[in-house]
Design a protein that fits this description.
199 residues, alpha+beta, eight-stranded antiparallel sheet, 8 strands, 32% strand, nucleus, rRNA binding, BRX1
């Protein structure tokens, strides 16, 4: 989140928000108190899932995203002046990249002749991926304008993984019971050499 704040100009951040019964009213009130026209609201659920809401104050619209792919301790970016933000859509996800425009300089810190031809883009971060969930008519709620049909919540994914693991355990238990019933129905014949070395 701090990487994103460092990229945004004129950004005002607040700590935690105590949400009352109406989340929408609380957040709109906070936006008005800060004198802002738009808001990014981050929700962290189950200590694993990060959701981000982008909203235009009071009237809307707003968008809810599932955010993933952000490294926990991304390297610090170096100071720069010229940068390019890239928003690309791949596989129904919005990918964000931040690039610095690097121009070759000489010892006196002047741009080299023909340096514009040698300009390069260097990714400085932050980098993240947004999976759009819903678009609302108003800020933080109201009627839904769009709902992503391909979105699967992280809770559903974890539940499926648990079921698969439970299936493995059930297979082991069934295999054990089958083995025991097989051993009982097909007992071993007595070994004729069992008493050979006994005195």
């Amino acid at each position: 989140m701090l990487n994103l704040v460092s990229v945004l100009p004129h950004c005002k951040k607040d700590n935690k928000v105590e949400l009352r019964s109406s989340k929408e009213a609380t957040l709109n009130e906070l936006i008005e108190l800060r004198g802002c026209s738009s808001c990014l609201f981050f929700e962290y659920r189950k200590h694993q899932d990060l959701y981000m809401r982008m909203a235009k104050s009071s009237n809307g619209p707003s968008v809810k995203f599932l955010v993933f792919g952000t490294p926990k301790e991304h390297r610090k970016s170096k100071p720069y002046h010229d940068h390019v933000f890239v928003f690309s859509i791949v596989d129904d996800h919005i990918w964000f990249r931040n690039y610095e425009i690097s121009v070759p300089h000489n010892e006196s810190d002047k741009m080299v002749r023909g340096g514009l031809d040698k300009m390069t883009l260097i990714e400085v971060g932050p980098r993240f991926c947004l999976n759009p969930i819903k678009i609302f008519a108003g800020s933080f709620g109201c009627p839904t304008l769009y709902e992503n049909p391909f979105y699967v919540s992280p809770n559903q994914i974890r539940a499926l993984e648990k079921k698969q693991k439970a299936g493995k355990y059930a297979k082991k238990v069934k295999a054990k019971t089958r083995r025991k019933t097989h051993e009982l129905s097909n007992p071993l014949e007595p070994d004729e050499f069992a008493d050979m070395w006994r005195d």
